[in-house]
Amino acid sequence: MAPAKLKIGCAGLGRMGKRHALHFLNRTPRAELVAASTPDDSEIAWAKTNLEPFGVTIYKDYDEMLKHEGLQAVVIASVTTVHAEQAIKAIAADKHTLCEKPLSTSVEISQSVVDAAKTKPQLKVMCGFSRRFDDSYRDAWTKMDSGLIGRPSIFRSQTCDKLDPSGFFVAYAEFSGGIFVDCSIHDIDLALWFFGQDSIVKSVVSSGITAVQPELRKHNDRDNAVGIVEFYGGRLAYLYCSRMMAAGQEDSTEITGTEGKLTINTQPQSNLVNIYESTGIRREIPPNYYGRFEQAFVTEANEFTAACLDDGKLPMKLTGAVQAVKIGCALQESLITGKKIWFDETGRRVEKAQM
Q: Is pLDDT at 127 greater than 90 in this prediction?
């Protein structure tokens, strides 16, 4: 008898949805992509060429896909504004759920997904923070956890996209939640991972500019921003996010401890090729986020599948996804208002007099 495979459906077939669908179709041996849904006609046309010939049933309606015979799990890669709604529907339908980040751009709505998951403890419900599945980040965390750098105290991380002059990110800003919720959410999650998932934020403050895309201001967003997050217990995170890099994707992290320091990808490179020219020696770097973290996404798909089939433990708490959104939203608010935002030792927001 052939080993059981996880029958999974993919909601949304945009940029990341296509990638998730192909990962489960071709690169996750213990999974079987059986269905996909999207309301977009161009995405359906893509699916009929790239998915349907391999036995994948295509739906225009997500609710109908959830009724697909034998469906056990869903990966949600739809537009951010419906992540939570679709996750809650999947949980209600007794489906394991892997949801792209963020659960929502709202803390309260994100919490509603956690509340729904608590009613079905037998289900595996995970928010996809891809960097936790990256080999380099995992190696750095293991080294830190072993005590190699002493007590981690300062965390510095950046997510910097290559400039996209098409206007995509200007339109996307209407519903993305802003650059801190969209870009820095990864760095925030990493800070919570390295400092401890239950770390409590003490304050946040941020500032930003529109260096190349002033149209972002109509959506209260920026193309470059810096944030500082202070945690109780004497720990500090410095975050930088940008959408105007010239060379390519520049995502890097530095963790400084009381006895040493770890860095990840501070000198980005696509591979080990050096190009020797009359002007000197250079190397290429990944053109986009997927170019840097493709294998992490594949690992994520395989580990989620294994957890569902083997009733294994997921690598992160779903509550951490809410904490990340909470910090991201506070940073975005500080960016717009220019005010520092404070929290008490229970994580509840408090008001303090400011100059």
A: yes
